[in-house]
Structure formats: structure tokens, C-alpha cells
Amino acid sequence: MIEPLMTKQHKIRGLSQGDRKRLKRYSDEHLINELQRRKPEWTPLERVDLPTITGNTGYAGADECWVNSRYQVLIYNADHPTKRGDWNDEDKEKEYPRFIQLSIKNHDKTISAHDWRDMMRIKNELVHRDAEAFELYPAMNRICDEANQYHLWVLLPEEEGGDWPKIPTGWRRRLLSDPNEAKRLNANQRQFEKGFLNEEDIEDMRNLAKLTKKLEFSQK
Q1: Domain assignment present for 164
Q2: Is the same domain home to 122 and 50?
């Protein structure tokens, strides 16, 4: 039987502050776990024909379309003549960085598409593990917020086959922890999905855990 809303609210108001905090934490964790549970298992991204939707200018200029069990990704290469507009279309005499745009949405077209690890995996699988991308939070006078769709801009090498450029911010080394190591450091971490990390990533994660424990021991 479903209790009346006011009865539920009354019961919550009657809880101690500690009980309220515990209830809220459980509710948040339960919601997050449920969202993760509902995700279909990750499958390889496969190239498909570009979708044709009358009146949808968002597909104008897309060079490729890729899909897997979770996402649809449109790729907009640099210098495509019918793009909606970005720095690649600016004055050619100015030295703007060049990049590929990845336009990403999940099949349900919901905000749950915005999972950092999934965005990272899409970038790795469709462009390159060594490529660096950014998500832009722009000035309000050029905001783009038309749908539950997310965009990554991937910086391109100066010449084909060259080194992938680095964004001049962030960390200088790989920093990874599994849930057990994070818990030991009084943090929370979820498990990595199969296929997200390669052997080199996993080895670095283990070495970092060993180094952290050594540093803690030497400081005691």
C-alpha cells in the first residue's frame, strides 16, 4: 500500500538529523546505482549511414555517424563547408587550434548521457587514446543548449601523423584508483567497466597505490 504524501513527509520531519543524512545518502547512492544498472553493456562503436531528419540542422555538415549500445555520435571534421560554425571557420590567417567536434547523445536522449567515463571512452575509440578533448562552458552570449546532447572538441595535430597536442592544464601523469584504494583514502570510486582500461593503465594504477602506501608509511 502506498502511503499518503503528507504521512511520508511527516515521518521524514520526525527523523533525527543523523537519520535524515543517512536516508539522503542511501537515496542518492541507490539512484546512482540504479542508473548504472540500467545502462546496457558497452558494445563497440560502429559506423552507420548519417540519419536524415527533416528540419534538423544539427546534422548539417556531419561527416560520420557512429552508434553502439548506448550512444549515437556525430563527427564533424575540420574544414567541412556546411558546419554550423566554429573556430575552424574563422579567419584563416589567425592561428586558431584545429579540432574535430564529437556530438553525443544517448538513445533515450536524456541527461544521463553525460557520464565522464563514457565521453572519455568515445574519444579514445573514435579518435585516439593520446588525443585530448575539452567540453566548453561558454559565455552566455554564445551558449548552445538546444537538446540533451553533448559536445567534445578534440584538438588535432598541426600536421597529419604528428603528435597530438596537449591542453595546457590538468595533471602531468596518469592518476587512477580502484574502489578499494579510494576507500582506503576516505574517498568514493566506482569500478571501471571492462575494456575502459588497458594493461598499461592497470599497471600504472597498481604502481600508484604502492607509491601512496609507501609515502604514508614514511610519514608516520
Answers
A1: no
A2: yes
Q: Do residues 13 and 100 both lie within one domain? A: no
DSSP per-residue string spanning 87-128? GGGS-TTS----EEEEEEEETT--GGG--HHHHHHHHHHHT-
Regions of the chain where pLDDT drops below 50: 1-12, 54-55, 57
pTM comes to: 0.78
Distance CA 45, CA 127 (A): 12
Nearest to 135 by CA among 185, 173, 101: 101
67 three-state secondary structure: strand
Residue 14: predicted pLDDT: 60
CA dihedral sign of residues 93, 97, 99, 101: negative
Domain membership flag for residue 60: yes
Of the residues 155, 184, 202, the one at which a domain ends: 155
Range of the domain at 76: 46-155
* Residue 162: inside a domain: no
Count the domains in the chain. Answer: 3
23-25-29-35 Cα dihedral, nearest 10 degrees? 80
List pLDDT tens digits, range 87-139: 666 666 667 778 899 999 999 888 777 899 999 999 999 999 999 999 999 99
- Pull the grid cell for residue 26: 542511501
